[in-house]
Fold:
Amino acid sequence: METAINKTIFEGWGLDCTRPLVIAGPCSAETEEQVMDTARRLKNTSTQIYRAGIWKPRTRPNSFEGVGVKGLKWLKQVKEETGLFTTTEVANAQHAYEALKYGVDMLWIGARTTVNPFTIQEIAEALSGVDIPIFVKNPVNPDVDLWIGSIERLQKVGITRIAAVHRGFSSFSENRYRNSPNWQIPIELKRLRPDLPMVCDPSHIAGKRSLLQEIAQKAMDLNFDGLMIETHPDPDFAWSDAKQQITPEELGTLLDNLILRKTDTGSIGFIHKLEELRGEIDRLDQELMNTLEDRMKVATKIGLVKKENSVTILQPARWDQIISKYLEEGHSKGFSDEFIRKLFMAIHQESINMQTKVMND
Ligand code: PEP
Ligand code: MN
Structure:
């Protein structure tokens, strides 16, 4: 079992190179007591870096937007009392100056900041000459170049210790995740930039506690180096991201349950290839669904035309024509007759159902 993270890429971070590198702490610093309670309890886990949002980028106004500078004093106290490294999100140059002033050990760039080259450039310039470790979250949209571009802007001002954080991508369609993992994107980043440590943030991918273990395991199977997981002393009452936070003790259990598989390059190559192909299948299935939706809409329109002209729904000659055409085409594509019949019968039946609905409306 391999349990060491890549020592060469974490060279100079001052970390204990046990895999996974664990970054944990609340979504937001809320009170001194909450910050300290979380930190003390995290000391019983393998957490090495304590995270807490001080300035919170919220999607909608009138949500809790962070405690601001006073929270930086609490982070300092965490460091002094527990010895944990500390990190917070900086979203502009001012945040960067303040964080440096209060001795935060590492910074992270949030997903809403990585998308914006102007802001990244400003932050980079504010940090010029200060070689502080930085975690760069992926941009909210699945664009690997934008992610790399932000990392490069930071490297250009002399920052040498950078890790990428995969926190998932926004999507319009409803799915089981808060932010779709699109694993192909971090995999592609790893291919292009094998020198960068890669951390997964299951909390923001999941949006809910029940998925954290599964996502963390997947990240380990894909050979990620670390995990950033939001932890709160009383998650249900957290002031932000309550549904996805877990207690420090639950984090301990999650980490104990992880299976760290042997990660020789052969098996990683295999896992990556499989992920890539699954990504392709997902895209094609989505296209199939969209095509079926379009087809049903047209069928409904046909139903209306038939209704207006008092024509019956089932037109046997037309159905024979369709099925014969596709049986023949199916042969040339290597599909069995049974598959083509079942497929078109199911589609045809659904069309008839839609048309019947229109007729009866
Ligand atoms: C967070 O880590 O609390 C956060 C706001 O993250 P993201 O930028 O991934 O949304
Ligand atoms: Mn959060």
